[in-house]
Write a structure and sequence with these properties.
single chain, about 525 residues, about 45% strand
Amino acid sequence: MFTNKKSLLALSVASAFALTGCFSDDDNNKPVPDDGGDGGDGGVVIVAPEAPAALDFVISGSVVENEEFNVLSNATVKFMENGMPSSNIVAVDGSNAQSLTGAGNFVVTLKEGADLDNVTAIVSAEGYISKVFNVDLTNEDDFDVLTAQFILFTGDSDEVKQEVVKKTLASATTSEEIVADAKIDTTSLATVTLPNGTTLQKGSGETVDPGELSLSVLGLDPTSDTKGSVIPEGLNANNTSGNVAVPVSLADITMTVGETKVKKFLGDTLKVTLAAPSDLDAGETLTVKSLDEDTGVWEDESFVVTKGTGTVSFETDHLTWFSVNKSAAACSTGLSATVTGDAVPAGGLLFIAASSDGLGLSVLPEGATSEDVFSGFALTRYGFSEDAMADVYVFDNEGGLWFESDGEVEVCGTVPVELTRPYEVVSKTLTLSGVCAQDNSQSVDVSNSVVTYNRENKREKSVLKNADGNFDLSGLRAGENYQVKVNFRGLPVVGSNTFTLDSVDDSDMTQEFEFTCNEVTGSGGSGGSGGTGG
């Protein structure tokens, strides 16, 4: 969809589906004697499994590529809190979810009693640029489903270039100068020079063993939307200064010898030169921050930055992501939108502001006509100053484009948004039921399940039960096919937990599943109790 346009979207989106309710089990699913029993001691009783406790909040996540929003099934997601592996993010069955592999789509929740405002997600997939995302949890009490959509870019496009240079080392100390230069045509985006006589070290400070050296530099066009989208989030985390650190130039530098990562240098430093906007103020002081890739936290550096003609340069004694930044006044008023045209559908739409400074994403809720999209604090967190300009887009969660601004608009102010629906959108209500496989007259409470649904290769949307104990599937493209998956959260389903919706319309539907129920030998004259709801 965005081929040959300014690439955008390295984002984490938070949207919500307001689905509430917690209900007791009153479906009379009492165990009954087996018909073959003698009515006395020794009869077989079928006992339905107990329903899991009701969930009131989940994070429905996906990792997708930036062009067609197709899911990256080989993705890995690591959750961090304050630089440490998260102890509060768990799977919906309560198991550990600190690190997820094959996480193109996933559903997690918070551990009971967790008090968490945000969590950091370190996201990677082979062939794509890894990125750090911040997941805002401050609206947990307002919504039941938070959608976290992580969008990754490749390292080779009209605005991004990665260059890898390989050399064989006879020792841990270089015997020649090694240069890696990431160019698009004749324009250098990032150049790194490893001087002769530099000793290479591991993170622990030990020297590396000899072998094949691989020096990689990833550079970005300093004026492109892609730079603001690819940069790992958190550059302005906890910034309350009244100014914002605006990224001027950005690069990711890595080095390995064999399978060992080089993290430090002894005897000399790595020389780094990055492309920079041509309109930098000659008298302006620039600073450098580097990313701790293990924790996802940006840290201040004391490197001296030298400005050239369309370049900035510095020297470093370690390797990672680097951002050269200028300081600018923050926006105090925030960004608002006036919404006209087609109505915002159930499930809401994604509002995106993308520029070379940063990328911000928020939600237009169902039926919105006037909306405060970003607060001043949120714009600071995303890296926008009071003078920032950005392209504005409105998408649905499957990548359908509802609005695109005519060029850049002022971020600090009010943006008129006229929506055009790209296809017919429908919603339908799904009623789930469960019965014991041994006795279909014995019901099983499945209302505390999590339902996810998606088109082929697209992200999964997740829903919890509504006020009637059913599941509202919103934002469906009319006439398309969807796969529906039910996470019964430990209930022992017999057979598959998935089914297909063909050529969807807005008609409601029901689906029944069988479960393995307990068989208890006891008095035929008395029964146990069924499961209880949340």
